[in-house]
Amino acid sequence: MLELATALILLSMLLALVSAIIGKTVYDKILAVNIFGTITVLFIAIFGFMTERPEFLDIAMVYALINFVTTIAILKFFEYGDMGRSSRLSEDVDI
Amino acid sequence: MVNIIAGILVVLGALIVIIGLIGVYRMPDFFTRLHAASVVDTLGTMLIFAGLIILAGFSLISVKLLLILLFILFTTPTAAHALAKSALHGKLQPVLKEKV
């Protein structure tokens, strides 16, 4: 049963990658990568249970956090051109 | 018996993920695609994790799974909202009869 679920999730990873490649706007691609990250979390959890090692759940939790922060950072980068005031701060302070 | 129920839940969750991604592929507009993609994040995740929690029994592993599920349920709608707001700010028009 779990092997069948693993095969289906691998197929859906392929679908998400195809959807990222043929996306028309940049927001489509960001959405597809976000979905790919969530599917990766599911895959790590199922794979950990399939090989009788539930310690993989810590990796899944870390990757869920990284996926969310990365999506927000990429959106901020596309809206403002840089990530925060790191490039403009050097003109104000004379350190 | 418990293993069979948990296995059916997990396979059902994987099928929901595939159905959601077919919806993302077939929708005509970005905002409808975003709406179809949120099916994957909520229903697919909840079904798969419910199956895994039943498989793990009553232990520390179930608490970890529950925490991951709560985190995903809180953050994926936030990311979807940020995507939609950023797309509207970037002047992406949805396919409507009137102008937004």
Q: How would you concisely characterize the structure shown here?
A:
The complex is a heterodimer of chains A (95) and B (100). Chain A is mainly alpha-helical and 95 residues long.
Low-confidence stretches of chain B: none
Mean pLDDT of chain A: 87
Helix content of chain A: over 70%
Largest sheet of chain A, in brief, is: none
Largest sheet of chain B: none
Label the overall shape of chain A. Answer: flat
Radius of gyration of chain A: 18 Å
| Multimerization state | heterodimer
Overall pLDDT metric of chain B: 90
How far apart, in Å, are the first and last alpha carbons of chain B?
A: 54 Å
Question: Using only CA atoms, what is the Rg of chain B?
Answer: 17 Å
Strand residues, percent of chain B: under 5%
* Rough outline of chain B: elongated
**Number of helical runs of chain A?**
4
Give the tally of β-strands of chain A: 0
Please describe the structure with a list of short key phrases separated by commas or semicolons:
heterodimer, A: 95 residues, mainly alpha, flat, B: mainly alpha, 82% helix, elongated
Folded structure, characterized:
The complex is a heterodimer of chains A (95) and B (100). By secondary structure, chain A is mostly helical. Chain A is built from four helices and no strands. In chain A, α1 runs antiparallel to α2 and α2 runs antiparallel to α3. With 100 residues, chain B is mainly α. Chain B is built from three helices and no strands. In chain B, α1 runs antiparallel to α2 and α2 packs antiparallel against α3. Chain B is elongated and about 55 Å long. Chain B starts with a helix and ends in an 11-residue tail after the last helix. Classes of the chains: A mainly alpha (95), B mainly alpha (100). The interface between A and B is large, with 40 and 47 residues.
